[in-house]
Model the fold of this input.
Amino acid sequence: MKINPINQALHLFSQHSRWRVLVTSILLTGSSSLLAQTPTPVLSLADSSVQLFMGVNLKTTVLLSNRRRAPGSGTAYLLLPADATGVEGTFDMNARPSLIYLAAKGPKLGSFTTGAKMVFNFIRDLSDPAYGLLPTLLYFDLKNDRWRFAVGQQMDVFSERIPNMIDGYFALAASGCAGNSSRGQIRATHYVPLGKGSKISLTLAASQPVTTYFSKDLRNNSENRGIPNAEWAVKFETGKDDQAWVPFQALELAVSGVAGSYRVFKNDTLAGAVVNTRINQPRVMGICGEYAFRLGKQFGIQGEVYSGKALGNYMGGILQTTKGNNDQEIRSAGYWSEAAIYWKKNWQTRIGYGQDVCNRDDLKGFGIQKNSTVYGNLIWDINHSFSSGFELTYKSTEYLGLRNNQGVTAMWMFQFSF
Done:
C-alpha cells in the first residue's frame, strides 16, 4: 500500500508529545486572490500558540497573439517593433504562474501577533521563460489593531493596487500600473480608526534600491549607494461589507510615493582600452494616487495614476529607467482604471484600460514612448479548488526610431488549488 508522504510526516509529528496535528484541510484558494484568503491550519503546536498553513496553486495559461510580445514567455507587457515580413503570430502555453504558499501565525508577543509568509513562484524572474523558484514573499511580521511591523522580501509600498487579470504577472505593468515588484524591505504601518468602520493607515518603508524580481538585466552594472529607498503610503478606507461580492470597500483612497537613488559604473574606452571609469547616480522619484469604490455588492471601479522618473525598476516608464552615457533619468506618467462586474458570486468580469507615456526628450531619439492596453475577461471560480478564465486584450506600442506595433492577444487559464 502506498503511503502519502505528507500524511506520513504529519503522523511523525503527532507522535511527539509537544505537537498535535490538525488534519482538517489544506489551503484551498480560488483565482481571485490567493494572498487574501484565510486558510485553515494544517499543523499547530500543542498549546495552539503557532499555526502553520500551506497551499499549492497549479495554474496553466495558454496565450495566442497576432504580434510578437516582449519580454518573456507567457506575458504580454508590450509588443516588439513591427516585423517587415508581417509574420508575427505567436503561441505560448506553460504553467509558470504556479506557486507554493507557506505561512505561520503566532506566538503572541505582548499585544502583538507574530507571523511569517513565504510564496514561491515557478519562475526565475518575471521575464525569464525557464522554470525555477522565485521568492515573491519571504517576510516576518508583528501586528495588532494599531500597528504592523514587517521585515523581509515584500511587495512595493509604492503604487500597491493591481488589476485582476487572469495572468497575474501581466497586471498592466508597462501600461500604467507601476509598483508590484518584490524587494527586501523593512516597513511599519499605523492604523488610525475613525469610527463607523472607517480608518486611515500610514505606512513607511526602507527598501532595496535595485531588485532583479522582474529581470536580471535591471542590475546593469548597478548597485545601491549604501542608502535604502524610502517608500510611503497614506490610505483611507470606509464602508466595509462582508456580504459584498466585489472585494472593495465602499470607498478607498490612497497616496503613495518612492524616493531614492543608486549608482551605475560606466567605462570610457579608447581603442578597446578602458581610459576612464565614471560613476553615475540616477535619482528615483515617484508619486501615485490610488482609488477604489463599490456600488452595491456587484459593481466596483478601481485604478491608479502615477508620475515620476527612473521608475523602470518599479514597473513604470515602460520598463525604461535611464538613457545615455550619463544615465539621465527617464520621466514618465501613466494611469489605469478597471471596472469589476460580478454576475454571480463566482462569475466576474473585469474591463480596463491603462497606458504609460515617457518624456520624448529623455529618450534621445530612440526607445518606447507610449504603451497602452485595453482588456476584458470572464473569470469563473468553479469551486474552492478549480477556476478558469478567458481574456482578450488590444495593445499598442509606439517607438521612437522603430516601427510602431498594435495587436490582439487571447489568453485562457485553468487553475487547480489545494
